[in-house]
Design goal:
The chain has 112 residues and is mainly alpha-helical. It is 47% helix and 0% strand. It contains 5 helices and no strands. It is flat.
């Protein structure tokens, strides 16, 4: 027996293609941030444009796209997408030399 599934009430995530969706979101964000939408698409690194680009990434992620898909749609590297989304894991940095423990004078073992 074959079960027939009713798909009449299924709503797609978006009727637009990912590229059209990115462009539409970029235009909305560009207006909100007061930047040119073309600057969001290219590699402009001014703070206002980077913030706008991060907002586009957050909106795409909120629509259900994976981090990898957000990176693919925005034509950026996964690491960059993760930094925009705030999910980039941070590595603990190596401990720096503590100069306060540096001994001088008669207590130093090298003064013999």
């Amino acid at each position: 027996m074959v079960e027939i599934i009713d798909t009449s009430n299924v709503v797609p995530i978006s009727p637009m293609t990912p590229r059209a969706l990115r462009r539409a979101i970029s235009e909305e964000v560009a207006i909100a941030y007061g930047v040119d939408p073309k600057l969001i698409e290219n590699g402009n690194r001014t703070l206002q444009v980077v913030d706008a680009r991060a907002e586009v990434a957050r909106r795409l992620r909120a629509m259900g796209m994976s981090e990898q898909r957000v990176a693919d749609v925005m034509h950026i590297q996964l690491k960059t997408a993760r930094s925009y989304l705030g999910t980039l894991p941070t590595r603990p940095c190596r401990a720096r030399y503590d100069f306060s423990t540096f001994k001088t004078g008669a207590n130093d073992a090298t003064d013999r």
